[in-house]
Amino acid sequence: MDFFLLRLDQIKGDNCLSIFKKMGYGAEYTDFAMLLGGKNREWWTMTPQSYGPVAIQGDDYSTCRASWDISVGVRPAIKYSTISHLCKNGKQNASGVTEVEFGEYPCSVDEENDSLYKAYYDKKMILTDKNYKIVNPMVGYEPATYITSYPVYEYNGKKYITIESAQSQQGNLFTNGNKVKGQNRYFLRIEPIVWLVDEEADLAVTNNIVFAGVMFNAMSGYYEYDEFEESFMKKFLNKTFAKDIKTPEMHIYEEEHSSHRKL
Hints:
Blueprint: H1 8-11, H2 18-23, H3 31-35, E1 42-49, E2 52-57, E3 61-64, E4 77-79, E5 88-92, E6 98-109, H4 113-121, E7 126-137, E8 145-155, E9 158-164, E10 185-198, E11 203-206, H5 232-244, H6 248-262
Antiparallel strand pairs: 1-2, 2-3, 4-11, 5-6, 6-10, 7-8, 8-9, 9-10, 10-11
């Protein structure tokens, strides 16, 4: 699997992908992306400009951002033909765009957060060997990295991570409309990732902004002209994100086909 970011011309303009012609290019943060520091519904493109990579903001705006700005979120993209055999629950949405599920990732805060909080501190949740990682370069010490891990817990047949909100996020809204309490522990469900498919272009991109908190590239000056192919973001998408989103079924599929290739 080779994940990447879309170019600006694939998102805006006369020759943009059919996905964005039908739906526009505004996207919402998942609760995970928001709690990781995402702001202003911004998400990275791979298009560089002289003052930094271009980010999409809201429904009708694009702007340059410094490459170390971790408040900009990400909508990963991938060639659809490389994952189509593993996708589930395909359907057309109200805009006539095909949606599929592929992989799983922390997403929404659970409505039963208070009872989950109690179960967590009563040690009734089962700690699994799975975790999700947010990785950033240690500025001035590359290639060393700083890793934040979010272990996965199981409880009543569902999987969760836990994350604490920042005080500065007080009053922000979750996707369910509830307000964030600053410095509060929240439990986020692990859910299927929904992808939007453009079969003619052989591309799939996530419906939502699925994470924030990761630098496009490490800071080396006030602004950087960054190429995606050489960026830290590409390494994160293909070394960390690609591994983290795998479901047990995807691991089984890989093992079976790996053994067939050896035969």
